[in-house]
């Protein structure tokens, strides 16, 4: 039905602020500079396709633009790098869920597959030099990210194994 996306200060002060009202919103993030709202819409449990990542320049755009949107595959788990230059997400385009990264906001300028044996739940380190994700063996992995104009993915190292009941 109706979807609404709100934001609130992390320290709990102030009230909720409506950022976007649109049906089908299931996750969202605001860029650190406050210029972009990135959100995921759609999807049904057990049905592939329909989960897409869209963006909206706050105070500028009236219509969201597709950032990573395909007809037959699902894109979700939005993770914007701390410097706002990279969008990491998960997609099932390879036949299983993997973690990918693209330049932001020009997501068509490149794509890198970060995980190789299944991947989910990407999360950037606060300094932007590592991208964490859970691999297909339920292990937390840290992928090093080098500084530069293009995404430079380095070593992927397993940090620990997640318990099966989680």
- Mean of residue pLDDT values: 90
Order the strands across the largest sheet as they lie in space: 3-4-5-6
- Low-confidence region ranges: none
**Strand-pairing-aware structural class:** mainly beta
Helix content: under 10%
The rough form would be described as: globular
Characterize the largest beta sheet: strand count, sense, and whether it forms a barrel. 4 strands, antiparallel
Describe the model.
The chain has 166 residues and is mostly beta strands. A hairpin with a 5-residue loop joins β3 and β4 (36-41). The chain has strands spanning 4-7, 17-21, 25-30, 36-41, 52-57, 65-68, 75-80, 86-91, 98-103, 112-113, 119-124, 130-135, 139-146, 152-161. The chain is built from no helices and 14 strands. The mean pLDDT is 90. It has a four-stranded antiparallel sheet with strand order 3-4-5-6, with no helix packed on it. Strands 7-8-9-10 form a four-stranded antiparallel sheet, with no helix packed on it. The chain has a four-stranded antiparallel sheet with strand order 11-12-13-14, with no helix packed on it.
Protein topology:
Blueprint: E1 4-7, E2 17-21, E3 25-30, E4 36-41, E5 52-57, E6 65-68, E7 75-80, E8 86-91, E9 98-103, E10 112-113, E11 119-124, E12 130-135, E13 139-146, E14 152-161
Antiparallel strand pairs: 1-2, 3-4, 4-5, 5-6, 7-8, 8-9, 9-10, 11-12, 12-13, 13-14
Short overview:
With 166 residues, the protein is mainly beta.
């Amino acid at each position: 039905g109706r979807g609404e996306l709100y934001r609130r200060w992390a320290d709990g002060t102030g009230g909720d602020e409506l950022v976007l009202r649109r049906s089908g919103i299931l996750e969202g993030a605001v860029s650190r500079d406050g210029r972009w709202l990135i959100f995921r819409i759609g999807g049904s449990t057990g049905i592939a396709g329909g989960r897409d990542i869209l963006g909206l320049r706050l105070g500028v755009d009236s219509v969201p633009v597709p950032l990573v949107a395909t007809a037959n595959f699902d894109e979700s788990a939005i993770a914007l790098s701390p410097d706002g230059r990279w969008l990491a997400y998960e997609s099932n385009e390879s036949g299983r869920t993997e973690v990918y990264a693209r330049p932001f906001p020009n997501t068509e300028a490149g794509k890198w597959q970060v995980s190789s044996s299944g991947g989910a739940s990407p999360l950037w380190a606060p300094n932007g030099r590592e991208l964490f994700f859970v691999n297909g063996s339920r292990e937390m992995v840290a992928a090093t990210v080098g500084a530069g104009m293009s995404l430079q993915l380095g070593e992927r190292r397993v940090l620990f194994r997640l318990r099966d009941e989680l």
